[in-house]
Design brief:
The complex is a heterodimer of chains A (about 260) and B (about 500). With about 260 residues, chain A is of the alpha/beta class. Chain A has eight helices and twelve strands. With about 500 residues, chain B is α/β, with parallel strands linked by helices. Chain B has one domain. Chain B is globular and about 70 Å long. The chains are: A alpha/beta (about 260), B alpha/beta (about 500). The interface between A and B is medium-sized, with 31 and 25 residues.
Chain lengths: ~260, ~500
């Protein structure tokens, strides 16, 4: 059984259809990249999979490990193993970073019938991951993402992912706004989490991230549909020719 | 920053809407007769002046600028009765859950009367004198002070600061008060645990009014925290009209906590008058969680050089609660600092008011006054009226003010939920984060912990009560200065 199976997914925001029939299968152990021009629906796809309620699903179905993902609330999807690394991580003043992540981890553990972790058990794991991501320990007790630099916010997303150990990790333009050092650290964090039990959906605008994260498949999303799929070489080709050729191909395919 | 000059001296004429003046007149007549032998002359004079004042003015209407957002008509119609002393019996078990763990001592008042059997005096820390105000007055008359109490100092302070001419509720309290607490912290004493004053309104079949009077004298360089706490047993209508005078001597450090957690039928007016000598550092923390109609007056006067005051508050309303906060910060001497921070959370059809008035007198150069009011509205029917009023008569001062009105942000809620936290917990977490700013300004651990427990409980109720979905595209005003200010001429 596939980890994620998206069949003819349609979704809209405020009555505008953004996803117009997406089909995609991700197996455990695979890394899939989704590329495409701005406005093609990449972030919408990520948000729908994370069950954001502002996006209305108008057709199709999505199965996570055979379960109907579209029936789940965001917290249920998270507990079932979906993790979205946000393109723009949200600042939450007044809530400590470590406290927040421990609450999240315990919510997920509780859902799975596991014992909750107290701070004594949690902090060593947390700090270890912080170190791997070269994060300043001071960020631990600061409010979630408040006053963090762009790079710190993205690393904080990867930190959460590392601690929560999802089955399906969705990275929404995690590379945007990062300098090369931060990009390298973030990519290392992702690579360290590759496992036969886990699937990745890496959404990116540029091929650059894929220099650091080895992808198994590349899909091109244009105007709410996947118009091409291929191996990593497709990303290199797009880098040379741009999305124009993919869009032209798509248009040609529609006319044919 | 903005400032306006107010021409003082012309007092507004207000209509009298006492409704049932006889209720109050009867109560006054009875009380005067009862206390004829026991009140010293100065106190009889105070009551008489206060009564005259109240009788002449009656309750304010919404035509009065200071009461513009709070309509007292419903309250004025009710014939509140003086409680009969000892007519209601309350067991220790009934108030157990209201106690503050780790308090230095707890004075309990039932329907305005001191209840020694319910109180826990323990062994008082050195330098703390505390007793019921009535007993202090009574023993002052017969010349034998009960243990832990000294009646001297009362005449010097009682009624000296809370001005019956300024406010009719102060006048009503000054005329009709029967009991309350007298707290004196001796010079240099450091009382590390909070002093808990618990005012219980217990149903007795009638609509009861009480006028608790508290006098707190913190002598120079002393340090203490006092929690004044209003609770109800049962769901009956009651009217509590409290006045507290807190006098902080030179370099004293005092915190006052007001906790309002009465039932939703309660009318509660409380007035805290702070008098600060040179270098005194006073904090007022108001935590309004209960009550149907609540008016919270806080009036510090910084009357010595270099005094500092913090006016911190959190008001949480739901249903049809009406929570009105009226701040009047008077800078009378130079080099003083005042900070006002009030956060409001309003759900249902609750209504909140924040009126922050700062008066900087002519001599109060180098004043540094700041005022911030932040509000979270959880429903379309909730409403906040927020109004600063700066009156500056000195020319070298720094005064700032700001207010924000916002909602729970859908983005934040989704972020928490996307990490596995369920919707109610996520909502609760965000409400708590908003309220926690106020908790962070409380520096006595036992008092803070007590406040935190109450606030968490209240916010959990609010988070649970929510069935409606947050608007998908919230009109985020958080962080913006909301232009609802009105300047006063």
């Amino acid at each position: 059984m596939a980890l994620l199976e998206i069949q003819d997914l349609h979704a809209s925001v405020d009555g505008h259809e953004i996803l117009k029939g997406v089909n995609l299968t991700v197996n455990a152990g695979e890394v899939h990249s989704i590329m495409g021009p701005n406005g093609s629906g990449k972030s919408t796809l990520a948000a729908v999979l994370a069950r954001r309620e502002t996006y209305e699903v108008t057709g199709g179905r999505v199965l996570l490990d055979g379960k109907d993902l579209l029936e789940m609330k965001p917290e249920e999807a998270a507990c079932e193993g979906v993790f979205l690394a946000f393109q723009y991580p949200v600042e939450i003043p007044g809530i400590g970073n470590a406290y927040f992540l421990r609450s999240a981890l315990n919510a997920i553990r509780k859902y799975r019938g596991e014992d909750e972790l107290d701070a004594m058990d949690f902090l060593p794991v947390y700090k270890e991951h912080m170190k791997l991501l070269e994060m300043d320990e001071k960020l631990m007790n600061r409010s979630v993402n408040e006053g963090f630099s762009g790079g710190e916010k993205k690393r904080n997303e990867i930190l959460q992912m590392a601690v929560l150990q999802p089955k399906l990790a969705i990275l929404d333009e995690t590379d945007s706004g990062l300098d090369i050092d931060a990009l390298r650290i973030v990519a290392q964090g992702v690579n360290a989490m590759r496992s036969p039990d886990r699937g990745f959906l890496v959404i990116t605008h540029y091929q650059r991230l894929l220099d650091y994260i080895a992808t198994d498949f590349v899909h091109v999303l244009v105007d709410g549909k996947i118009v091409r799929s291929g191996g990593p070489e497709l990303a290199l080709e797009l880098e040379d020719t741009g999305y124009g050729s993919a869009e032209a191909n798509a248009a040609a395919a529609l006319q044919a | 920053m903005s400032s306006t000059l107010k021409h003082s001296g012309s007092e507004k004429v207000m209509a009298t809407v006492t409704g049932r003046p006889n209720t109050y007149l009867e109560a006054y007549g009875e009380l005067i007769a009862e206390r004829l032998e026991r009140d010293p002359v100065w106190l009889r004079q105070l009551r008489e002046d206060a009564w005259t004042r109240f009788h002449a003015k009656g309750f304010p209407t919404t035509h009065d600028e200071d009461w513009r957002f709070t309509n007292l008509a419903a309250m004025a119609k009710i014939s509140f009765q003086r409680p009969v002393k000892g007519s209601v019996s309350v067991s220790s078990g009934e108030i157990e859950s209201f106690r503050v763990p780790a308090a230095a001592c707890q004075l309990v008042f039932v329907n305005g009367h001191f209840a020694p059997a319910l109180s826990e005096m323990g062994s008082l820390p050195k330098g703390l004198e505390i007793c019921s105000l009535e007993s202090a007055i009574d023993c002052g008359m017969v010349g034998a002070a009960p243990e832990g109490c000294a009646s001297d100092g009362i005449e010097q302070h009682l009624g000296r600061y809370a001005d019956v001419r300024r406010d009719v509720f102060t006048a009503l309290n000054s005329a009709l008060w029967e009991d309350g607490a007298y707290v004196r912290i001796r010079r240099g004493a450091n009382i590390s645990q909070p002093i808990h004053l618990l005012y219980v309104s217990a149903g007795s079949g009638a609509e009861i009014m009480t006028h608790p009077r508290t006098l707190i004298v913190a002598e120079p360089t002393s340090h203490a925290a006092v929690i004044e706490d209003y609770v109800s047993l049962g769901s009956e209508v009651a009217f509590s009209n409290a006045v507290t005078e807190l006098v902080a001597g030179q370099d004293a450090v005092v915190s006052h906590y007001l906790v309002e957690r009465e039932n939703l039928a309660a009318f509660n007016v409380s007035t805290l008058r702070l008098e600060q000598a040179r270098g005194a550092n006073v904090s007022s923390h108001s935590i309004l969680l209960g009550g149907g109609l609540v008016r919270n007056n806080v009036h510090p006067v910084l009357s010595g050089d270099g005094a500092e005051c913090l006016i911190n508050g959190l008001f949480v309303g739901a249903g049809t609660q009406h929570l009105d906060n009226y701040m009047l910060v008077e800078h009378a001497q130079p080099q003083c600092g005042s900070r006002q921070f009030y956060n409001g959370i309003l759900d249902g059809s609750a209504r909140g008011v924040f009126h922050g008035r700062i008066v900087v007198h002519k001599d109060a150069q180098k004043t540094d006054a700041k005022q911030t009011n932040r509000n979270l509205l959880l429903s379309d029917n909730a409403r906040i009226d927020t109004k600063p009023q700066l009156e500056i008569y000195a020319d070298d001062v720094k005064c700032t003010h700001g207010a924000t009105i916002g909602q729970i942000e859908e983005e934040q809620l989704f972020y928490l939920r996307s990490r596995g936290i369920d919707e109610i917990s996520a909502r609760n977490t965000l409400l708590y984060a908003f309220a926690a700013e106020c908790l962070d300004r409380m520096h006595e651990p036992a008092a803070r912990e007590f406040a935190e427990g109450l606030i968490r409980e209240r916010l959990t109720e609010l988070a649970r009560n929510r069935n409606t979905v947050v608007p998908s595209a919230p009109a985020t005003e958080e962080g913006e200065e909301v232009q609802r200010w009105e300047e006063v001429r």
